[in-house]
Amino acid sequence: MCTSSVSNLSIPFSAATHHGIRVLKTPRALRFRVIRCIAAPDLLQEAAVLQLADAGGEFRFEEYMASKVKLVNAALDSAVPLRHPVKIHEAMRYSLMAGGKRVRPILCLASCELVGGEEALALPAACAVEMIHTMSLIHDDLPCMDDDDLRRGRPTNHKVYGEDTAVLAGDALLSLAFQHVATRTGDVAPDRVLRAVAELGASVGSEGLVAGQIVDIASEGVDVDAAVLEYIHVHKTSKLLEAAVVCGAIVGGGGTEEVERVRKYARCVGLLFQVVDDILDVTRSTEELGKTAGKDLVSDKATYPKLMGLEKARDFAAELVGRAKAELACFDAERAAPLYALARYIALRHN
Predict the structure, then answer these.
(1) Which of 252, 261, 254, 321 is nearest to 4 (CA)?
(2) How far, in Å, CA of 180 to CA of 23, rounded?
(3) Cβ neighbours of residue 318 closer than 8 Å, sequence gap 6 or more
(4) Distance of alpha carbon 331 from its chain centroid, rounded?
C-alpha cells in the first residue's frame, strides 16, 4: 500500500565515479549502479545495465528484461497461431513477432508485481497492449499515414502483404486484444477485468491514440506550440503506455491510490518515450533505428527538437525521468526496482 506522499517532482540524486563506474544514489537506500557503459557525450547516448542493491539483494536489469521478453514472446506466439485464413494470420504474426523491445507489456507485468500481484494475472493484458501497439505500427506505416517502408529493420507489413491485408491485419489484432483480455484473464475479479478492458479502449479510441494521430496529421507543415505538441504525444504515444501500466496495477489488485500513482508515473514515461523518439529521429541512422531516420524532419512534423531545440529536448527528457521516479517513491523499493530501471532504460535507449 502506498502511504507516503511526494512533495518534490524529482528524486534527488548524488553521483560519484569509482574506477570509471558512475554510481547514482537515491533516498531509502535505493542504489542504481551503472555497471557497464559506452562512453558518450550525453545521457541519452549511454547504454547501461542497471543493478539494484537494497538490503543485500540484487536486481539485474538485463536478466530481468530477457526473461520477460521470452515470456511475452511465448504468450504472443500462442495467442496468434498460424491458422485459416492463413494469409491474415501470417500478416498478423509478421508484425507481432518481429521482435521489438516489448517495453509496454513488460511495464504491464512490472506494475502488476509492484502492487503484489503475480505476473500471470497480467500476462493477457500485457499481450493485448502489444497487439494494440502492433496494430498502430502497421497502420502508421501505411501510405495514407506516414508512408514508411521499414519497421524493426525489415519491410513494413503493407510492403510484404499489400495495403488491403495490412489494414485487415491491424484490425484483427485490435479486436483480438480485447477478446484476449476478456477470455484469458484468470483469477481476477470480473469488475477488475472490465476496468482493464475500459482502460484499453479509452487509450486507443477517439480520445486516445486516434486523437493524437489525427492532430499529428493536421499539424504537418504547421507551426504548433508546446501545448499542441504535448497533446499529440500524450495521446498518440503516452495513452497506450499508460494503459499498460494501469491495467497491470488493476488486475494485480492495486488500490485506488496505487493505481493513480502508477498512472502518473506512466504519463511521464509515455511522454518521455516520445521525446526520446523525436531526439533519436534526428541523431541516429536508419540502420541504428531499424526504421527510416529523419522521417519527421522530411515530413515537417511537430517534434520536441524542432520546437525547443535538441539540448532543451534532452533536458526535458531528464526532467520527465525525475518526475516518473518520484511517483514510485512510496512503493516498496524492491518491487519498484523494475519500473525505476525501465524509466531509465527508455531515456537511454538508442533505437
Answers:
(1) 261
(2) 42
(3) 43, 347
(4) 21
Q: Band of the pLDDT at 24, cuts 50, 70, 90?
A: very low
Cell triple for 131: 497487439
Q: Global pTM?
A: 0.82
Looking at residue 299, its amino acid is: S
The residue to which cell 489484432 is assigned:
173
Model confidence at 131, pLDDT cuts 50, 70, 90, reads very high
Give the span between the Cα atoms of 295 and 132, in whole angstroms: 23
Amino acid letter at 247?
C
Give the residue ranges of DSSP H helices in the chain.
Answer: 61-79, 86-96, 103-114, 119-140, 157-161, 163-184, 190-204, 209-218, 226-233, 239-251, 256-283, 286-289, 295-299, 304-308, 310-326, 333-348
Q: How many CA atoms lie within 13 A of 131 on its CB side?
A: 28
Cβ atoms of 61 and 339 within 8 Å: the answer is no
Query: And the C-alpha cell for 216?
Result: 499529428
- Can you list the alpha helix ranges (DSSP code H) found in 284-309? 286-289, 295-299, 304-308
Q: Judging by beta carbons within 10 Å of its beta carbon (0-12, 13-18, 19+), is residue 122 exposed, middle or buried?
A: buried
Place of cell 494501469: 246
Residue-by-residue DSSP string for 270-290: HHHHHHHHHHHHHHS-HHHHT
Peptide bond into 190 cis (omega under 30): no
Band of residue 152 on the pLDDT scale cut at 50, 70, 90? confident
CA dihedral 202, 151, 73, 92 (to 10 degrees): 70
Q: What is the 3-state secondary structure (H, E, C) of 5-66?
A: CCCCCCCCCEEEEECCEEEEECCCCCEEEECCCCCCCCHHHCCCCEEEEECCEEEEHHHHHH
Could you identify the residue written with the cell 531545440?
309
User: If residue 150 lies in a helix (H) or strand (E), which one and from where to where?
Assistant: strand 150-151
**Nearest to 338, CA basis, from 150, 40, 102, 65:** 65
- Which residues fall within 8 angstroms of residue 90, CB to CB, at 6 or more apart? 82, 161
Q: Are the CB atoms for 60 and 49 separated by under 8 Å?
A: yes
